[in-house]
Amino acid sequence: MTRYGILGFGHHAVRRLLKGFRESSHSQLTGLWRRDAEKASANAREYAIPLVFETPEALCASPEIDAVFIASPDALHLPHVLMAAAAGKPILCEKPLGMNANEVALMLSAAHEAGVPFGVAQNFRYNPSVERMHQWIAEGRIGRPRLAHAQFAYAADHSPRQWIYDPALACGGPIGDVGVHCIDALRYLLSDEVTSVTTLAHGDTASGHVESYAAIGLGFASGAVGTVTVTTRAAYRSLVEVTGENGVIVCEDGLTVDHPVELVLRQNGSIVESISISNEDAYSRMLDGFSAWIQGRGEYRAPGVDGLHNQRILDAAYASWRMGTREEVDPTPAA
Questions:
Q1: 101 contacts: CB under 8 Å, gap ≥ 6
Q2: How many DSSP H helices and E strands does the chain contain?
């Protein structure tokens, strides 16, 4: 059993990670730290978490913690990753990994020098809906993918994550928050790398210096074209669809873990296959996947290098928005 400590025990930990740990077979939540010490103690009592740490350093150094899960605000990821690496602890970090690709490169270097596994919490790679889409595409059931689209919409007006509109703490608005999930899903589904990015985005009074909705055009190395659309000003939706030369796969709410989703394969305008799939175990499968990886049993689907690829794309997306240009992306692996 791998004993985890969470740095940044907030809304996401309560809403998603607690259930993931409860339902996992090889991953146990043992300790936590959060910026508000009183809330941390209250969380530990309410959710029966054995250990509360006064500082991130204490959590990382504890012999009772085997791996560190970083769920703090984006701007704290770099110092927390460096801290965990220095303590020799395997690291699973929420996305986006950092505020920019230079930060992520420092994380990768620190993890490599310390010899510790470093993964990204891209839980949607463990969604059965995404797995099945990936399988159908790999089997050639729609021919070569030519178009791909992912949309993630949610209403952030009353979000308990008060830091998400603070550019000092957040990588950005919905592009960084959920657009990174869409980008990663399309890269994973197509087994392809993004080489160019073009962005249209808008902010509003509530979002301040970050965007509230955006459309991102992606050029892939294979010649496929992708689009990612995101907003924090609409009801929840997470559409994923891929159009190939011989068919199309559509999954409405394909990234949700809250209810079963319908996965549809069409050819020549007719439904060839339609199945209902539940993603409710995606978080526990992600946690156990990472635990197995650090124990030498198999590979984790979202290693840190994937986080660098995604961060390069985020950097390009924001540069494109601000400068009104098409931005090129380096698809090569990290050094």
A1: 308, 311, 312, 315
A2: 11, 16
> Which residues share a beta bridge with 2?
27
**Strand-strand pairing, 27-33 and 51-52:** parallel
pLDDT score of 262 more than 60: yes
Average pLDDT over residues 113-126: 97
Q: Output the CATH code of domain 2-123+285-300.
A: 3.40.50.720
- Domain 125-279+311-328, second-level architecture: 2-Layer Sandwich (3.30)
Token digits for 304?
Answer: 């840190």
**What is the sign of the dihedral through the CA atoms of 178, 184, 187 and 191?**
negative
**pLDDT tens by residue, 131-166:** 999 999 999 999 999 999 999 999 987 776 777 788
DSSP secondary structure letter of residue 125: G
- The ranges of the chain annotated as CATH 3.30.360.10 are 125-279+311-328
